[in-house]
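Suppose you are handed a protein chain with no further information: no name, no annotation, nothing but its sequence. What can you learn? This example shows the usual starting point.
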Amino acid sequence: MENVELVLLDTKSIQQYIFSCNKLRLNLGASYIVSHIYREDLLAAVAEATGETLTDVSMLDEWKQNPATVRMFTEDVPFEVGYIGGGNAFLMFRPGLGSTFVERWTLRLLKEYPGLSTGVACMTVPVTSLQTNSFKQTLFEAFKLLAHNKSGQYPVTTPAKYGITMDCALDADSCETWHAGDTLDMFVSAAAEAKIQASLRVREDLQQRYGDILDGREFPSELDHLGQREGDSHVAIVQIDGNSMGKLLMGCTSLEQQRTFSVELARANEESFRHALAELVAVMPALEATEEFVFTDESRPDCPRYVPLRPLVGEGDDRTFATDARIALFFTESYMRYFSSCLVLGKPISCSAGIAIVKTAYPFYRAYRLAEQLCEAAKDARRQWQDSLDNPPDTSWLDFYLAYGGLSGDLSSIRERQYIVDGMRLHDGPYCLDPQVPGAGWPLLDDLIKGIRYFSPAADKWPHSKVKELRAALSSGKESTGVFLDEMRARGLGLPSTSAGTDPWVERATTTPPTSTPYFDMVELVELYPPALLDKRAEVRGAAAMGGKS
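A reasonable first move is to predict its three-dimensional structure. Written in structure tokens, the prediction is:
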């Protein structure tokens, strides 16, 4: 075969599609749809385009077992997967079949999953352009065409909405169908119905993937079942994203390298999540013993036991999940440290994370957008740190925000209004996970958690009332803080030391204004990091220091 038709597929506005409503059940269904349009639906469209009988979806994974084998180079086959991963699919067809496949595949999506929008690039190239010397340029041209098509095409993927039709209570679309059963009996939009139906398959899918870890527990399908007791309604939406993965991807010089990159990155993502999940499940008996968490639903006859976490997105280098606010920092750090210990194409990798802590009833999509901005803030801090050094190592960073009420504006404007006092910052982050990070003036996560443990009631170092007074003093500025700390020192109460010493106000290099306090974040998170998790972290980090994986 002299020529092949390349088809590059991409899912547009994934987060908007998944988080467009505040019902976790629909979010789960949407996430399932996004992860499976490159499975059964893709295989069915390939079968229609090629005229072959294809029923075994595992054939779409053959490239993972043999990355070096490209049958298109040596055999007259109608179709082969280049790679699938990270929301993209790179497919190869016999000339003329690719465009037919695109027609069949997009039509299936339009019928089955209204509201889901995709981008496509098709180009016919010589087989030789996919071989080692030319592959990088061919891939670049394919992505360039995809970007051009996505920016110039705005497909309508939902039925038209008229003034005489009822609005769906679950999303902003028009009602088209009646849904009966479960907890819903109502008219819903076609998009919402597709997500509801997909959500019915999520539980079985997750049980197959993580049942060996869950110890008889299951993931909750409602935000109210993440472990909170009545009156304690904060949840966390966490967004984790790999650092500089696009650069690593574009450095691939062959299809074999590209395939290996996709396989190893997906493995790092999945293994990191499994590692963090296993650590959480192991410490859950200790959390239950405190009687501060509720991990069962006694209103149901089967009284299911829950793990206080719900995975939402886990593709490529992206990982998004919802959890109890008190679990978030522990689980996120566990995931990130394992991910940072992995190699992709023989090179170290890292990630950044944003943790948005909000009320359970807070609009889900806005909470996700906040987590996304926090993740970007962590990436910005990492870039500033890298720019300050000649040969910086790869490091992971995270940032968080605790919302007590409604929010308006973007993250930077919110912090400027709420966290600047006397020209100094109350928030000290973003935080670097590497305790040996070179360079001065960078906030370290180890310092933050050391301070949380120091101020924790279980440590019995500071009375809880005085911890609250410290927060108020810091919020009042430098002078009030100085007066308060003088009084505390007279009572024998000192501040925990950090890498910057014990000065309540320090000079940082991450952002402006440069002066911030390490202690406000510690005090703010004291009630959101249970002693049982602090003990588990100390145990795990101690093992890591002796040579084990953290």
